[in-house]
Amino acid sequence: MFIRKTDTKSMIISLTNTKEKKSGMPIHNAVELCSVGRQCRFLKKSEQNSKDSAEYFWALNDVSFNVYKGQILGVIGRNGAGKTTLLNIVAGILTPTQGKIKINGRVFGLFNLGVGFQDELTGKENIFLNGSILGATKKELNSKLRCIIEFSELGEFINMPLGTYSQGMRLRLGFSIIVNLDCDTLVIDEILAVGDLLFQNKCFERLMEFKRLGKTLIISSQSMELIERLCDSVILLDHGQSLFLGDPVEATNRYRALLNTEKFFVGPVKKNINLVENTKKWTDDISNWGKELGTKEVVIKKVEFINKFGWKSFKIRSGESLRIKTHFTVRSKIKEPHFGVAIFRNDGVYCYGPNTKFEGYHISELEIGNGYFILDYYKLFLAPGEYKISIAIWDKNETIAFAYNHGYYRLIVEGDYNVGNQLIKIPFICFPRKFIIKDMPHPDLNILKDKWGSKVNSEGIEMQFVKLLNCNDEECSILTTDDPAKLAINFCKFTFNKDSYLWVGLYREDGVYCQGIMQPFNSGNSYMALFSKLSLLPGGYTFSVGVWDNSARKFIMSHHAVYPFRVVFDQEDHGTIYLKHKWSWRLP
Fold first, then answer.
1. What are phi and psi of 199, to 5 degrees?
2. What is the DSSP letter of 577?
3. 552 in the same domain as 436
4. What are the Cα distances from residue 580, in Å, to 321, 380, 381, 480, 490?
5. What pLDDT is attached to residue 376?
């Protein structure tokens, strides 16, 4: 154990190496601070005197706390509150002006990733350079070299000059070095987001593994979600002094209250409409599918797909009920989790992603043990095809996953031939109904590929109007998820052809084909499609209208993606279609 003592008068720091008691009793405190302060000197210009005068201020003043082995302490506060000064003192980079520090074991400080890197050296050579700056021996670096390279995932780039690296690759290398060297306490200042999403999850997994091994973490961040999620206790600093030390949630609440007392700018408060206008429509990264992510405090043991007969099957018919039951094991007690299930089409299109947080459920904590949660879909209105399912248990703000099996499970939706790779099958009724036939032709939608936003008319067919109507039969351009809706189409001029068909296509504004409707084009000049519930999630959509000549295999008239509308909702669910469902669970 290292003890740093400071003589307040002489400001001389002495470092002594002590041993544990002969009784063999372990030392439980990893870090102890007693009345620690750091005084800084700066020069102030005087208007009356040409000489600069020296003045002093306390960057840190009378701060005391203990951090036990295996705990995570968070340090929060405004810019200039003294956070970095405190962390530098704990890491041994700065010496305090007053007070006493006790450190049990080896401390590494993670402040600026890649400090000491040289662009002309290779990644491997920089491992030895950076590691030696951190205090690691050549023998230790040789023994850890393979682990560092594998963790960084830099592959053959490790033998290339650092000058060829992107900033993200540099961050990967710097973080990989620090988390693979042996230390007892790791001090991290404002760099908890490193690289892409997958690598960030990997970093957080390593930090939680670090904690499980009995190591100690002291971290600073402006992300209150991360602080609440990771820390056992939190110290709040302001103007170099400790305002609070204790429960993370209470600490962050006090910090938010502190921020509200001193604002740099006060502007008009915007009216809160409480309606979501856009939502997530694509997966983050399809290359991550099939991977088990998360900090592993919870492990997903088994996921069951159960059909309407109660049988386990990964195949389900379109429009039928589906139960997804997720069994999990909690390895470390966690606070305020939420459950989530997401369905993606094979190309990454987000179909639907509800979670318990969006729906207002509050789960205070999960105790160590086994449990499960169930998501019941009443009717799965997805078009036939193959889908990927993600299952996750997140922290309350979906910042870090405890367990996240991303695109890990395969689901087959069976049904009729999927014309044009439709995404969804929202129930509707067409009028006039008597002309609906069982086997409709399949229009070639590739013909419209380069005609987005254009109108191609025909001499024999003239459109009068296309209107989207709400439940009051009023023309509208904005609907709410699950509202009833009517699409009314009128022609003022049309040519009868026994082998022509009216086609209506529903598209997302990013070009994804959601659903198609076909009607024989021989029933007069008026057509209507009635949706008892237009179950689209927030975002922009558009209708296309065309007349398909099945004999000639071409569109003789097409208005492609020229009738736009928007959908809003009072929930934050991700995806394209809202699927009615319910949650249930048994917690450990």
1. -70, -35
2. B
3. yes
4. 10, 8, 10, 15, 33
5. 96
How would you label 341-380 residue by residue, b for 16+ Cβ within 10 Å and e otherwise? bbbbbeebbbbbbbbbbbeeeebeebeeeebbbbbebebb
Selection from 484, 435, 455 nearest residue 543 by Cα:
455
pTM of the model: 0.66
Q: Could you tell me if residue 365 is inside a domain?
A: yes
Residues 509 and 557: their CA atoms lie apart, in Å, by: 21
Q: How many CB atoms are located within 10 Å of the residue 271 CB?
A: 6
- Say if residue 471 is in the same domain as residue 544: yes
- Quote the domain boundaries for residue 457: 429-568
In terms of domains, do 407 and 458 share one? no
CB 293 within 8 A of CB 554: no
pLDDT at 115: 61
Cα separation, 190 vs 304, in Å, equals 40
CB atoms within 10 A of CB 317: 15
Cα torsion through 220, 222, 224, 228, rounded to 10: -10
Q: Output the domain CATH number for residue 354.
A: 2.70.50.60
pLDDT, position 183: 85
| Residue 31 DSSP label | E
In-domain check, residue 224: no
Domain of residue 83, CATH code: 3.40.50.300
* 466 and 550 belong to one structural domain: yes
Do 535 and 574 meet the contact criterion of CB atoms below 8 Å apart?
no
189 in a domain, yes or no? no
For residues 418-438, b (16+ Cβ closer than 10 Å) or e, as one string?
A: bbbebbbbbebebbeeeeeee
Position 448 in a domain: yes
Give the H or E element holding residue 152. Answer: helix 138-152
What b/e sequence results for 496-509 when a residue is b if at least 16 CB atoms lie within 10 Å of its CB, and e otherwise?
ebeebbbbbbbbbe
- CA nearest to 89, candidates 2, 171, 18: 2
Could you tell me which of 123, 78, 137, 98 has the C-alpha nearest to residue 9? 98
**Of 209, 249, 210, nearest in space to 74 by CA:** 249
479 closest CA partner among 578, 381, 343, 560: 578
241 and 101 in one domain?
yes
Number of folded domains that form the chain: 3
Collapsed DSSP state (helix, strand, coil) of residue 194: coil
Question: Which helix (H) or strand (E) segment is 368 a member of?
Answer: none
Q: Say how far apart CA 404 and CA 386 lie, in whole Å.
A: 21
Sign of CA dihedral 296, 302, 308, 310: negative
- For the chain, 588 residues long, the average pLDDT of each consecutive 10-residue run is 39 32 54 90 59 73 90 89 89 88 85 70 88 83 90 88 82 83 84 63 80 88 83 90 91 83 42 75 89 92 95 95 97 93 96 93 94 96 96 88 94 91 92 62 90 88 88 87 92 77 94 92 80 94 93 92 93 94 95
The pLDDT assigned to 263 comes to 47
The tokens for 431 are: 């009028």
If asked whether residues 554 and 456 sit together in one domain, one would say yes
The two three-digit tokens of residue 80, written as one number: 């200039």
